[in-house]
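Appendix B. Chain record.
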Amino acid sequence: MNLNRHTTMKKIILLVTLFGLAAALSAKAADAKENWDNLCAKCHGAEGKGDTKMGQKLGCKDFTDAKVQADLKDDAATKAIKEGLKSPEDKTLMKPFDTLTDDEVKALVAYVHGLKK
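Structure tokens predicted for this chain:
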């Protein structure tokens, strides 16, 4: 009976841990979508196609395109979010979002990869 109780306790602890992890991952995904909607969508579009007026003017890439996604490296995307992007003529194409935490940037990069169709 004691062994049964111990096994049941282990299962309960495991389930609680898994639910907590799932909730944390879900919260990160929700935060990433909120950050996308608030910070990125005005240029990149709600779906990531870059088809907004500003996105077309700046030459935003279509993140739903598999080829664009294949060329999109996490370190380059992270750098672009943290430091912004400039044209060869030193014109600001994307301002830096340096108020985001490393975890928020990482979640946003994952969100962008999830836009691929």
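Further analysis of this model is presented in Appendix C.
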